[in-house]
TrEMBL record:
Gene Ontology terms: biological process: cell wall macromolecule catabolic process; chitin catabolic process
GO molecular function, one term: chitinase activity
Superkingdom as given in the UniProt entry: Bacteria
Record's keyword annotation contains Hydrolase: yes
Hydrolase recorded as keyword: yes
Species, as recorded: Pseudomonas amygdali pv. mori str. 301020
Gene3D superfamilies tied to this protein: 1.10.530.10
Protein name in the entry: Glycoside hydrolase family protein
Length: 349
């Protein structure tokens, strides 16, 4: 007796689009564990509606400090978690539509469903496994028998050890009370009509819709995982690029410091030279040519001859200072050229 999306939304009106995601998975899970009568389906849907916040949560909420109650002490032992504070409480928190909790339950559920839940507990957050684990737990606790008897008070006791959540289930628009059964009674009217017009076609469409719905939900999860992986790859690339740029900036900063020191040392040396020139009133002399021709140009030396030291002229201090300034500009130009060459080498790597 499968349930459709409209019926599920009548029972769990706050499920929204999640109803369409879970309908195929719920029908497959309920069929496997014979949750196939109006009373069984009504009780089961009401129970998972409470445990999952009307299909919105398949992972138990709570901080690490809150989940630490599952990590040590008597509750941890009852759930099969290790007695040490090693994170079992956080790792094996409640998951699935009925909140399977604890290492022992994860191990038993994994064996029943053919999943390695001890290594991959997050599998129970996927729609098909979330629904199947809830139906498995329902069957293991023999809750179909209680639903058949109408023993609605005992069902929450079997699951949570008390009745504190019963009011929440009854508060659902189609909770444990008769409203859920009335919603499912509409199914019998539809079936009666369909039997008169051909059950085979209807059944085929129901199966195909469930199959494609489950396939679509699986593809959606795979696409979301691919998006997350792509986003992580972009973040890794950005971090690597920032690290490379930072390293380049540090190298350039070191080069700037070195070049600045060289420039400062050269300027200091030049300043000392100027001080010596000013203090000693040094006169620079230049070698003048031998006797000049009428046009004032030096005469050429004879064949094989040498120009011997001719008369020397003296430059005044202003001319000497100008010559020193010109050499300053040359030194600064060489230092700047060296800095440019170092920068080009760095960015070329």
């Amino acid at each position: 007796m499968p349930i459709n999306q409209q019926q599920l939304l009548q029972i769990l009106p706050n499920a929204g689009p999640q109803a369409g995601v879970f309908v195929p998975a719920l029908n497959i899970a309920m069929a496997r564990y014979t949750i196939d009568t109006r009373l069984r389906i009504a009780a089961f849907i009401a129970q998972i509606g409470h445990e999952s916040g009307q299909l919105r949560y398949v992972r138990e909420l709570g901080s690490d400090s809150y989940l630490a109650k599952y990590d040590t002490g008597q509750l941890a032992l009852r759930l099969g978690n290790t007695p040490e504070a090693d994170g079992d409480g956080q790792l094996y928190r409640g998951r699935g539509l009925i909140q399977v909790t604890g290492r022992a339950n994860y191990e038993a559920c994994g064996e029943a469903l053919g999943l390695d839940l001890l290594r991959q507990p997050q599998l129970l957050e996927q729609p098909e496994h979330a629904a199947m684990s809830a139906a498995w737990f329902w069957d293991r606790a023999n809750l179909n028998l209680l639903a058949d008897k109408g023993d609605l008070l005992m069902i929450p006791r079997r699951i949570n050890g008390g009745t504190n959540s019963l009011a929440d289930r009854q508060a659902l628009p189609a909770g444990i009370g008769g409203a859920a059964v009335k919603v499912l009674d509409m199914r019998f009217l539809i079936l009666a009509f369909v039997l008169g017009s051909g059950l085979g076609t209807w059944a085929a469409w129901q199966w195909q819709g469930a199959h494609y719905g489950l396939q679509l939900s699986t593809q959606t999860l795979a696409w979301q995982q691919e998006r997350e992986q792509a986003a992580l790859a972009v973040v890794d690339w950005q971090n690597a690029e920032q690290a490379r740029r930072r390293a380049l900036e540090l190298r350039l900063q070191d080069n700037d410091t070195t070049i600045h020191k060289e420039l400062s040392d050269a300027q200091t040396s030049q300043a000392r030279l100027r001080d010596r020139l000013a203090t000693a009133d040094l006169r620079l002399s230049v070698l003048l040519a031998s006797p000049t021709a009428g046009d004032g140009m030096p005469t050429a030396s004879g064949s094989g001859g040498v120009v011997h030291g001719g008369p020397r002229g003296e430059l005044d201090p202003a001319a000497a200072g100008r010559i020193v300034a010109i050499t300053d500009y040359g030194d600064q130009g060489l230092i700047a050229l060296k800095a440019c060459q170092a920068y080009v080498r760095e960015i070329a790597h």
